[in-house]
Design goal:
There is one protein chain. By secondary structure, the protein is α/β, with parallel strands linked by helices. The termini are far apart. It is found in: Cell envelope.
Length: 180
């Protein structure tokens, strides 16, 4: 019985490691590995989780913006949020991070917004997190897994390699390489 329990425990640990490395399916919460391919981030006019207006002008004035696409249903997304919050406070002046709450069905989605606000507060992650407008909802249709993290330059161009799954060290490596 002890060997069976140990084998079951090891299987659960292995599954958890795979789950955390690959992320959640944006629709089902199951592991997935593909995302959108586009070299221009869509124009948008929306609000953040606090109701403040946000447009693609958020990218201007920064050499690089880390866009973390995440969902309130996704354990790996939630687990990386404290580290993202800490990193956002330490970023150089020419870089920033923003979140995109993928499971909100628009700026008027009060239930998902409330869940996102609680997650961000609990994680001490005070960086801007936006709710998708129609253009971003259309863009999110091509995102298969969260977290998916992309990198955007000051002109709104998607640059570098997207990162699928929770891997803050990899995000930092990309930003550091771009800012050199």
């Amino acid at each position: 019985m002890h060997k069976l329990f140990k084998a079951l425990l090891m299987s659960m640990v292995a599954f958890s490691a795979i789950f955390l490395a690959t992320g959640c399916s944006a629709e089902t919460g199951k592991p997935a590995q593909e995302t959108a391919n586009s070299n221009k981030f869509p124009a948008f006019q929306t609000v953040d989780v606090a109701g403040n207006p946000v447009t693609q002008d958020i990218f201007k004035g920064k050499k690089i913006t880390v866009v973390n696409i995440w969902g309130t249903f996704c354990p790996p997304c939630i687990e990386e949020m404290p580290e993202l919050g800490k990193w956002a406070r330490e970023m150089p002046q020419d870089a920033q991070i923003i979140g995109l709450v993928c499971d909100a069905i628009g700026p008027s989605d009060k239930e998902t917004t409330a869940a996102a606000v609680k997650i961000l507060k609990d994680a001490n992650a005070s960086f801007v997190n936006i709710l998708p407008d129609d253009n971003l909802l259309k863009y999110l249709e091509s995102i298969d897994a969260v977290p998916t993290t992309i990198f955007v330059d000051s002109d709104g161009n998607i640059i570098g390699e997207k990162v699928i799954g929770a891997d803050v060290a990899k995000y930092k490596q990309q930003v550091k390489g771009y800012l050199k």
